[in-house]
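Open question from group meeting: does this chain pack into something compact, or does most of it stay loose? Before anyone orders reagents, we agreed to write out a predicted structure and look at it together. Recording both the input and the output here so the notebook holds the full record.
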Amino acid sequence: MKIDIITVLPELLESPFSHSIMKRAQEKGLLEVRLHSLRKWAVNEYGQIDDYQYGGGAGMVMMCEPLSKAIEELQKDQSYDEIIYMTPDGDTFNQKTANRLSMAENLLIICGHYKGIDQRIRDLYVTKEISVGDFVLSGGELAAAIVVDAIGRLLPGVLNDETSALFDSFQDNLLAPPVYTRPVEFKGLTVPEALLSGDHKKIDDWRYTQSLERTKEKRPDLLKDNDL
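Structure tokens returned:
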């Protein structure tokens, strides 16, 4: 998978993709993340990519011309399954969306900044708008890093254990069950007997029950689509 990211501040995204799972995914050739500074397509020698908004009001708006040139130049070498704009008023990102996007071959992500991007870019180019929650960040870079991480870890071969992602929280609309490791007893608390039994069916049944109970307690809204 290839993911291109257009950003005003590429430096903010260098660290998230240079460590841990995302780093290994790229070293294995399973994921390629390419950062593009929007100032490369600035409208003048001063690097301008934003301007005052029509109608007045505080805050600058990212201009049409730099974004249009950036998108169209990248499209010359690459067709995209989705052109994504990170914005607080987009569809809330969830595991189902991550699963679907992980099936794509090429994605382009636009990171908003200031008061956002000119609406005409959204109308002309953007195919999907994503929010990571009902709050506002200083820019779309951190949100884009979240989306890429969630997608990247789902790619076949990225995780050492191929089944690991299948048991994450929110797969099948359930939260993950409690997990334990050694020692068996710690400060009077012990590992549940089912996990020590060696009986795979008993372990699976325990985990499912715990997932269901945890979801009912913490996120009952997730069960509405499960008919449980």
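Observations to bring back to the group:
The chain has a mean pLDDT of 93.
Helices lie at 11-14, 20-27, 64-77, 95-101, 119-124, 141-152, 193-196, 200-218.
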